[in-house]
Amino acid sequence: RHEPLLYFGNRVVKRIVDLVMAFLSIVFILTWLPVVVKLAQVFSYPGPLFFVQERIGRDGKIFNLYKFRTMVFSKESKLAKKGQAEKTHEMDKRVPWFGRLLRRTNLDEYPQFLNVLFGSMSTVGPRPHMVGEDKVLVKKVSRYRVRRFVKPGITGLAAIKGYRGGTDDLDLMTKRTELDIWYLENWSLWLDIKIIAITIWQMATFRIPKAY
């Protein structure tokens, strides 16, 4: 299998891009966005600022993924952290209007630049799945393990093409896995830049597919 990121030089280039993106995002976004999110939470859906959940990373290693909490805090939240709660769906009543805004713009994912800074994620790569989902999908989706060969990303090729959510849909997951594998076999700096640019455009125009 041809994997450009097996080469040390390519990994260095990708890591430099990740560090630049993390630095810019932390300095220009995460210095003020958490304050705005917390104020909105206090007045409309009180509870913790962040939602932390175990996800599967590179080589199948488990890491804690950080997001801004977008749902009403309840007893179900403990189940959600383990991936055992009911999955969110369009017009979900557990997601207040501000939480829905964060999801529609992908701003709820911004704390993951901390994951990028610490090295457990990349700016671009396959989206990381919950531990329980991963155990099921590895048995049902052909070549699923291959997507673990690179770090998971905040955004990715499958994500910008609309293959988000819906891990119960095996046809969708098969296509997502195919795109993830195509990405790691055809990685280039230009491809990452293109995916980042499309993601920013989708965020700015509220055109992120299946963002609910």
Report the portion of residues in β strands.
Answer: 5-15%
How many helices? The count is 9
Average pLDDT score: 91
Which term fits the overall shape? globular
- Gyration radius from CA atoms, angstroms: 17 Å
Strands side by side in the biggest sheet? 1-2
* Main sheet specs: 2 strands, antiparallel
Q: End-to-end distance, in Å?
A: 36 Å
Instruction: Flag low-confidence runs.
Output: none
Description:
This protein is mostly helical and about 210 residues long. It contains nine helices and four strands, in the order ααββαααβαβααα. Helix 1 packs across helix 5. It is globular, with a radius of gyration of 17 Å. It starts with 7 loop residues before the first helix and ends in an 8-residue tail after the last helix.
Question: Which features characterize this protein?
Answer:
single chain, 9 helices, two-stranded parallel ribbon, two-stranded antiparallel ribbon, 212 residues, mainly alpha
